[in-house]
Amino acid sequence: MEIKTISVVYQRKFNLGNYESLEIGCSLWAQIDPEEDADGATEFLYQQAKTSVKEAVMPVLKSSGYLDKNKQSVPKNTQQDKLDDF
User: Distance of CA 29 to CAs 10, 13, 32, 62, Å?
Assistant: First the structure.
């Protein structure tokens, strides 16, 4: 089978408290040549989508106090790992 188009969707949902939530996502598409590495292109698109979502959501999470609320329930070094793992 010949793969011509790759699509990746990355979404996250955050419970902000007070019955509020934030859902954000990114969808990326790429057309590739049959000679290109489809798995490598898929991984690249996934990482790009994940980075885009993280960059878009961080200001909202900071201004909502979400990060401060979650720091109390998670040990300090684990919180940074959690954000890096996003």
Answer: 12, 22, 10, 30
Domain of 62? Answer: 5-85
For 3-45, how does the pLDDT look when each residue is reduced to its tens digit (9 = 90+)? 899 999 999 999 888 898 999 999 999 999 988 999 999 999 9
The count of other CB atoms within 10 Å of the CB of residue 63 is 9
pTM of the model: 0.75
Number of domains in the chain: 1
Q: What six digits make up the tokens of 62?
A: 């900071």
DSSP secondary-structure letter at 16? E
